[in-house]
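Late entry, evening session. Most of the bench is empty. Finally got around to the prediction I had been postponing all week. Sequence below, unchanged from the version circulated by S.P.
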Amino acid sequence: MGTVGLNWQFSGIGNFSGRGTSDMLLRDANTGGLQAYNINSNQITGSAFIGAVGLDWQFSGVGNFSSVPGESDLLLRNSTTGALQLYNINNNQITGSASIGTVGVDWEFAGVAPVSAPGASDLVLRNDNTGQFQVYNIANNQITGSAPLGTVGTEWQLGGFAPSSPTGSMGISDGSTSQLVQAMAGFGGGSGTGESLNTAPLGADTPQQPLVTTPQHA
């Protein structure tokens, strides 16, 4: 499909064009620039520069956080403060942004998956000191709920999420990860209840961060 410089890092796959295709988002490790590549029939069909973010903001998943049907949004996290920022993307442009809170920097990104319900885009974090998992339900650009998933030993590394249906595909499937949740709740003696885990609270009063610059040509 082509070649890009080694300074461009992978930042997720989603429907950034709004055409229902699987598009690729890359980020320049030197400048923080974000570039969307529209892909169809195994070919690059278009490309657009959608802005730049500071290098202290790390990729933390792609999902339909806005609840706009078919939209793919970007979640970034500040590696210094733990702040979480959403960017709504449509037609290869940033259409909105929202701060959804702050979490301690000892909590690491584990994935985005339909944990709470089929088709949901929920954020899963893991504490790198204790191995605890916490899920945050996101809809309409805000946290709508949170729950502990259990604890696993820190020597176990996350291998990924799978939908309950063997034919499902993450992000667009009607399947859920209920089996994963049930399994995690039993690891390490965790009961899956709020009393068994130290949750990672998100600050609702975190101010919005003006991160994305005015888009310009790449």
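Two things to note before I forget:
The radius of gyration is 17 Å.
The first strand starts at residue 8 and ends at 14.
Will write this up properly tomorrow.
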